[in-house]
Amino acid sequence: KAGVTQTPRYLIKTRGQQVTLSCSPISGHRSVSWYQQTPGQGLQFLFEYFSETQRNKGNFPGRFSGRQFSNSRSEMNVSTLELGDSALYLCASSLGGNNQPQHFGDGTRLSIL
Amino acid sequence: GQQVMQIPQYQHVQEGEDFTTYCNSSTTLSNIQWYKQRPGGHPVFLIQLVKSGEVKKQKRLTFQFGEAKKNSSLHITATQTTDVGTYFCAGPHGSNRLAFGKGNQVVVIP
């Protein structure tokens, strides 16, 4: 079974630009969660989608948004990029629920210049 | 909101020695999960504990869930260089979300 696939692996952007990251979950997984990882801050939860509906949202500004398609693939968009948005963005898929293991992709490393 | 706290945040461990990392919550957890992230990699699920006082072993790794289901520990014996990485615990935060601790970064000294 193929794992979680995130594209692109690396991105370099400048302040003010916007970016879209993509995540393809494991086949059969309907829940996709997004996390931001920066040194020393662990995994900061962004949002979770299940069957095209956002069920949970973390404490991030509205510049961070996402969506999920009918095939469970998910995208995350960040607008008006700031230097502080530089991070590893991880996507994880699961069967759904807080008692299911999360399966992570390799992440997208976003650097803002 | 509910959080899980991990201590210590960093550990330097001599190869061959044992070490333990801890995870604490202020509220009772229905389950706790442990993940390992190798340097440059992504978090990988290790195990889930559900029952009060549960102990599970994976080779040199022993995971324990506290009797009150508010804390958990991971104990590694005879540390190897392959044990290097960051160990995260995660507990439920609401019905459909996990809250991750900040992790315990482990450096192994040969």
Radius of gyration of chain B: 13 Å
Classification by helices and strands of chain B: mainly beta
Oligomer: heterodimer
Q: Please state the overall shape of chain B, judged from the principal axes of the Cα atoms.
A: globular
Strand content of chain A: over 45%
Helix count of chain B, per DSSP? 0
Rounded mean pLDDT of chain A is: 95
**Secondary-structure element series of chain A:** EEEEEEEEEEE
Number of helices of chain A: 0
Computed CA radius of gyration of chain A, to the nearest angstrom:
13 Å
Report mean pLDDT of chain B, rounded to a whole number: 95
Task: Give the overall silhouette of chain A.
Answer: globular
User: Which runs of chain A of at least 5 residues are low in confidence (pLDDT < 50)?
Assistant: none
How does the major sheet of chain B shape up?
Answer: 6 strands, mixed
First-residue to last-residue Cα separation of chain B: 40 Å
Number of strands of chain A: 11
Q: Percentage of helical residues of chain B?
A: under 10%
The biggest sheet of chain A, with number of strands, parallel, antiparallel or mixed sense and barrel status, is: 7 strands, mixed
Topology record:
The complex is a heterodimer of chains A (113) and B (110).
Chain A: E1 5-7, E2 10-13, E3 19-24, E4 31-38, E5 42-50, E6 53-57, E7 64-68, E8 74-78, E9 87-94, E10 103-104, E11 108-112
Parallel strand pairs in A: 2-11
Antiparallel strand pairs in A: 1-3, 3-8, 4-5, 4-9, 5-6, 7-8, 9-10, 9-11
Chain B: E1 4-7, E2 10-14, E3 19-25, E4 32-37, E5 43-49, E6 55-58, E7 61-65, E8 71-76, E9 85-92, E10 98-100, E11 104-109
Parallel strand pairs in B: 2-11
Antiparallel strand pairs in B: 1-3, 3-8, 4-5, 4-9, 6-7, 7-8, 9-10, 9-11
Give a written overview of the molecule:
The complex is a heterodimer of chains A (113) and B (110). Chain A has no helices and 11 strands. Chain A has 113 residues and is mostly beta strands. In chain A, the strands form 2 sheets. In chain A, strands 2, 4, 5, 6, 9, 10 and 11 form a 7-stranded mixed β-sheet that branches. In chain A, strands 1-3-8-7 form a 4-stranded antiparallel β-sheet, with no helix packed on it. The relative contact order of chain A is 0.33. In chain B, the strands form 2 sheets. In chain B, strands 2, 4, 5, 9, 10 and 11 form a 6-stranded mixed β-sheet that branches. A 5-stranded antiparallel β-sheet of chain B has the order 1-3-8-7-6, with no helix packed on it. In chain B, 35% of the residues are buried. Chain B has strands spanning 4-7, 10-14, 19-25, 32-37, 43-49, 55-58, 61-65, 71-76, 85-92, 98-100, 104-109. Chain B is an all-beta fold and 110 residues long. Chain B starts with a strand and ends with a strand. The model of chain B has no long low-confidence stretch (mean pLDDT 95). The chains are: A mainly beta (113), B mainly beta (110).
